């Protein structure tokens, strides 16, 4: 029975590799899945930016962008109007 399972797995993995667009990456992913060494991205469900907890992904992204713009202005003595222009461009993506 063990030989049958090994052969079925082997043929399944061969098929996955043959139909894959990434022939080198597919065996690596198979090994990671079999060994349990899969790296999963951690999802952030909420963020505290000082004004309260944000749970909406778009608001979290906007808050981070606004924070980074503030850091740019403070660190590099950049003209605040230039940073606000960047903020306006960022808002156009929403």
Question: What are the main properties of this structure?
Answer:
single chain, 94 residues, mainly alpha, 2 domains, two-stranded antiparallel sheet
Topology of this structure?
Blueprint: H1 2-19, H2 25-35, E1 47-48, E2 53-54, H3 57-76, H4 80-92
Antiparallel strand pairs: 1-2
Helix pairs in contact: 3-4
Provide structural commentary:
This protein has 94 residues and is mostly helical. The chain folds into 2 domains: 2-35; 47-92, no CATH class. Helices cover 66% and strands 4% of the residues. The chain has a two-stranded antiparallel ribbon. A hairpin with a 4-residue loop joins β1 and β2. α3 (57-76) packs antiparallel against α4 (80-92). The longest helix has 20 residues, at 57-76. It starts with a helix and ends with a helix. The model has no long low-confidence stretch (mean pLDDT 76).
């Amino acid at each position: 029975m063990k030989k049958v399972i090994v052969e079925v797995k082997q043929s399944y993995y061969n098929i996955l590799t043959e139909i894959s667009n990434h022939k080198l990456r597919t065996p690596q992913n198979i090994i990671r899945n079999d060994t349990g060494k899969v790296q999963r991205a951690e999802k952030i469900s909420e963020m505290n930016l000082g004004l309260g907890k944000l749970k909406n992904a778009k608001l979290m992204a906007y808050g981070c962008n606004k924070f980074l713009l503030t850091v740019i202005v403070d660190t590099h003595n950049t003209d605040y109007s230039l940073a606000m222009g960047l903020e306006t461009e960022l808002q156009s993506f929403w």
